[in-house]
Design goal:
By secondary structure, the chain is α/β, with parallel strands linked by helices. The protein has a single domain, classed as Rossmann fold. It has 8 helices and 7 strands. Strands 1, 2, 3, 4, 5, 6 and 7 form a 7-stranded mixed β-sheet that branches. Helix 7 links the parallel strand 4 and strand 5. The mean pLDDT is 96.
Length: 192
């Protein structure tokens, strides 16, 4: 088991949570410490994909740690050096936009800001319906910033949702490994 400490932050994009949880399980098989973090929406919103209580329970069961889901619980990540890498999966267009603009008014963006103060990697596994439209410039902004690494992504439904981008969540563990070495996993763009 690897000793690096992984933070795993979930945002909305509820339809992708099941795939993201499989990636989380894979990380817990490789890393001794995986800390779950959930945005306010992910932690406290019931949807047709499941209840928020069930999601928090599953995160606790998979990782063996309590879910960090409020600002006071994530703010110490940086000052205490709690993580070696932070994964944001699924990273919604809203979260990517806030990161690009330096806005830290959510649990996930505060976790990222706090973590980045130590110059450590943030891995973005996006799920955005407007990635090739309004969100494109925000993705571009993070692609050129130091310490951000993207899980390979592509269009998930080019005909039905031509602006939508989604990460290959199965590649989260490989992207984390590369990011910890200071490398971007390639190729970054997937073929449809």
């Amino acid at each position: 088991m690897r000793k690096e400490r992984v933070g795993f932050a979930l945002c909305g994009s509820f339809c992708t949570h099941e795939k993201v949880l499989h990636a989380l399980e894979a990380l817990t098989q490789q890393y001794e410490t995986v800390i779950p973090i959930a945005s306010e929406n992910a932690a406290f919103t019931d949807t047709r994909f499941g209840t928020s209580a069930d999601l928090r329970r599953r995160l606790r069961e998979i990782t063996g740690h309590e879910v960090l889901c409020d600002l006071p619980s994530v703010e110490p990540i940086g000052p205490k050096g709690l993580l070696d890498v932070l994964v944001i999966a699924p990273a919604t267009g809203n979260t990517i936009a806030k990161l690009a603009a330096g806005i830290t008014d959510t649990v996930v963006t505060m976790a990222a800001k706090s973590h980045l103060r130590n110059g450590r990697p943030v891995v973005i596994a996006m799920a955005s319906n407007d990635g090739l439209s309004a969100g494109a410039r925000n993705i571009g902004e993070l692609l050129v910033r130091k310490h951000y690494y993207f899980v390979p992504f592509g269009q998930d439904s080019a005909i039905l949702k031509p602006n939508s981008l989604i990460a290959d969540f199965d590649k989260i563990p490989d992207t984390v490994d590369a990011a910890l070495r200071g490398e971007q996993l390639q190729p970054i763009l997937m073929k449809s």
